[in-house]
Design a protein that fits this description.
The chain is 60% helix and 18% strand. The protein is of the alpha+beta class. β2 (115-123) and β3 (126-136) form a beta hairpin. The model has no long low-confidence stretch (mean pLDDT 84).
């Protein structure tokens, strides 16, 4: 079966997609602090890697196998990133600056279940209202949408916090946002 060049290319391509998908997931899990899960993924990853690389090295005289390996590698990166995007592991911190506190954005965000810390701020052109919001990543896009509904001109910056300690909200905010999502779906 492995004598057929086309079948060999497809096998190398598919193996490399799986390998790089596992590699990408392992790296993301490691960066997010999921040590044991990352270690488990890495065990599967290395077996797939050895098999795929072995097939390419055994057939190095066939350039199409090397091309299949390279294309499979690129596809694996994309697929791994898409999987992580769907899993949306961790939290996101969103800083919002608005010109108009009369919009009452902090209150509305709290009503929607988000934990918001807000304060008066000063910008180049005068007074502003600043907010900091910490939310699970799976609610990130919905949060941006809601902010823009209230204030389309809001200045939004987001980043992933490395560590979170203290505060009331880690469990309670996740629960409140989920409840609010269910209520909005009805």
């Amino acid at each position: 079966m492995l004598e057929n060049g086309l079948i060999m290319m497809v096998i190398i391509f598919v193996i490399n997609i799986f390998y790089v998908t596992f590699f990408t997931m392992r790296m993301i899990l490691t960066l997010k602090g999921y040590r044991y899960l990352a270690a488990g993924v890495s065990m599967v990853e290395v077996v797939i890697y050895v098999v795929g690389l072995g097939l390419v090295l055994d057939n190095l005289n066939e350039i199409q196998n090397l091309i299949a390996y390279a294309v499979g590698y690129g596809m694996g990166v994309i697929i791994g990133m898409k999987i992580e995007e769907k899993l949306a592991l961790g939290y996101i911190t969103v800083n919002v600056i608005t010109m108009d506190n009369g919009l009452d954005l902090p209150r509305k965000l709290r009503e929607w279940g988000y934990g918001v810390t807000d304060w008066e701020a000063n910008g180049l052109e005068g007074g502003r209202w600043a907010m900091q919001i910490l939310t699970p990543r799976k609610y990130e896009l919905k949060l941006y949408q809601r902010i823009k509904e209230v204030d389309p001109k809001a200045f939004i910056i987001s980043y992933e916090p490395k560590a979170i300690h203290g505060g009331f909200w880690v469990k309670s905010v996740r629960k409140r946002i989920a409840q609010e999502e269910k209520k909005n779906e009805q």
